[in-house]
Specification:
globular, about 35% helix, 5-stranded mixed β-sheet, Glutaredoxin, alpha+beta, 4 domains, 19 helices
């Protein structure tokens, strides 16, 4: 945000006995030579990873602006020693306050309230702050952000909106210095050759788990479409920093790419508002955006997702609906020769033996603290349900990182599992859109999906939630409402003596037993304190117990009867 204050550059960055700045070769530059220029104060340090990532980007922008002659940057170091400062400053093309002038550095940080780095504050030619959001401006707009005023950013936003209205494949992929893409054999392919094609812009990072899992799926779909002669192409927009990683990525990809660290890469991330990877943006034959992220479509339907039009998406939705309606346990758990699960002894249990049972698919991992915390609750519910209904089973689907961790975690479970590393896990993750663990998917005796929120149901109701149907949940709700009629509207509790607890409907974590709750709570809004009714009322009812004759014990105190 710009500030109305006007700063005299000489008094701002000079100190007693110093009226100069330094270059990384040791040359001194008089502060007076910067008067009348736009000046950036760059607060940064070598120990800071975001700073190390931003500095080369900013250096590239600076070198393009340097020829204007009206812009300069001053490094304000937060390094911890002189050697670190010198090594870091050696990579910078601009000026710096000497590292030894710690008083000036400290004064600037306090004056401009620098709370984090990297931080770029820009002063205009008159010494007025143009912006303290220079890092974001450079990251988003590069050299076009100059002179870093709010008016310039507004102009860029208006241009961007106009560009979206008139979007073409050339406006997306061509830059001022480049009108080509590169193939995985190193050839330059003119962007003009993509005109009239459906294009997938693939935002990815080589070495990132989700991207590495999705890339082979996308390759398979791409090659099938090419075999059919479809007018389709993919362009990689890589987030990698290292040349070797980029080259390795291209070896596994039969399509085109923007050059590594091309200025368009960051621009497209902002332009398409990329917030997750992998992302596959689909551009239609007319150059307009057809779909903001087709990753799930390709995972679920492969090449059949092409050409990604609204009509095709409607067709796919109908196909998906039919799949869900015809879903069976075998369609989920039988893939080729993988037609079994295993028990703790390692013995294979045919999936056919589970047909006709109510099944919970338990997505979990040993490395995940919430999974380890939830496991005892699930085991308790499992044992209770098994006593009522033998036609019930749980199948563990592991996200563990190695066989030993898998074995250790599974050894404490009383149910069945898919083998570690089984390919069916990827299919099930996609089918049920598993975004986090632990997760529980409930299937009925026909193999149809009853609930993808069974974890919440177990947490809230334990074994009583079984068999997780809407009818059962409605029944539980009615029972709970009836039971709640007999509870007090307010109560005092020894675990929260400061305020009364009020009977409230909400989702919460019980501060008494640490269990997840939903529905009724005894709640203190002022302290955000919750007790599950079982904890609140149990304490109230059971805290008083008979001690020695003539005494009453409450909590950790025994008192004589009145």
């Amino acid at each position: 945000m710009a500030s109305p204050a006007v700063h005299d550059l000489n008094s701002l960055i000079s100190s007693e006995g110093r009226d100069f700045l330094i270059r990384n070769n040791g040359d001194q530059v008089k502060i007076s030579s910067l008067i009348g220029k736009n000046v950036g104060l760059y607060f940064s340090a070598s120990w800071c990873p975001p700073c190390r990532r931003f500095t080369p980007i900013f250096a590239g922008v600076y070198e393009k602006l340097a020829s204007k002659g009206d812009f300069e940057v001053i490094f304000v170091s937060s390094d911890r020693d002189d050697n670190s400062f010198k090594d870091y400053f050696s990579k910078m093309p601009w000026l710096s306050i000497p590292f030894s002038d710690s008083d000036t550095i400290k004064r600037l940080k306090e004056l401009f309230k620098v709370r984090g780095i990297p931080h770029l504050l820009v002063l205009d030619a008159n010494g007025k702050v143009s912006t303290d959001q220079g890092v974001r401006m450079v990251s988003d707009h590069g050299v076009d952000a100059y002179p870093f005023t709010s008016e310039q950013i507004q102009l860029l936003k208006e241009r961007e909106e106009e560009a979206k209205r008139n979007q073409t494949i050339s406006s997306i992929l061509v830059s001022n210095s480049r009108n080509y893409l590169i193939s995985n054999d190193g050839n330059q392919i003119p962007v003009s050759e993509l005109e009239g094609k459906v294009i997938g812009l693939y935002f990815s990072v080589y070495g990132h788990g989700a991207c590495d899992e999705f890339t082979p799926i996308l390759v398979d779909a791409y090659e099938k479409l090419k075999e059919k002669g479809q007018n389709f192409e993919i362009v990689l927009i890589s987030f990698n920093d290292e040349d070797e990683e980029f080259k390795e990525a291209l070896k596994s990809m039969p399509w085109l790419a923007l050059p590594l660290k091309d200025e368009k890469c960051r621009e497209l991330i902002r332009y398409f508002e990329i917030s997750e990877i992998p992302t596959l943006v689909i551009i239609g034959q007319d150059g307009k955006t057809l779909h903001p992220n087709a990753v799930e479509l390709v995972e679920e339907h492969g090449s059949d997702a092409y050409p990604f039009t609204p009509e095709q998406l409607e067709n796919l939705a109908e196909i998906q609906k039919a799949k869900l309606e015809s879903q069976t346990l075998e369609s989920l758990l039988v893939h080729g020769e993988n037609d079994f699960v295993i028990e703790k002894s390692g013995a294979k249990i045919p999936v056919s033996e589970l047909v006709g049972k109510n099944i919970l698919l338990y997505f979990s991992a040993h490395w995940c603290p919430p999974c380890r915390a939830f496991l005892p609750k699930l085991i308790e519910a499992y044992n209770e349900i098994k006593q009522k209904d033998k036609e019930f089973e749980v199948v563990f689907i592991s996200s563990d990182r190695d066989q030993d961790s898998f074995q250790e975690f599974f050894s404490g479970m009383p149910w069945l599992t898919l083998p570690f590393g089984d390919e069916r896990k990827k299919f099930l993750n996609r089918r049920f859109k598993i975004q986090g663990i632990p997760a529980l998917v409930a299937l009925n005796k026909s193999g149809r999906t009853v609930s993808t929120e069974a974890r919440k149901l177990i947490s809230a109701h334990g074994a009583d939630a079984y068999p997780f149907t809407d009818e059962r949940l409605k029944q539980l709700e009615e029972e709970l409402e009836e039971e709640a009629k007999g509870w007090p509207e307010k109560l005092k509790h020894e675990l929260h003596e400061a305020h009364e607890l009020v009977k409230t409907r909400r989702s919460y974590v019980c501060d008494g037993c640490d269990g997840v709750g939903s529905g009724w709570s005894f709640h203190c809004g002022e302290c955000d304190f919750d007790l599950h009714p079982k904890c609140a009322l149990k304490k109230k009812e059971e805290s008083k117990e008979e001690g020695k004759e003539g005494w009453v014990c409450e909590g950790d105190v025994c008192r004589r009867k009145a």
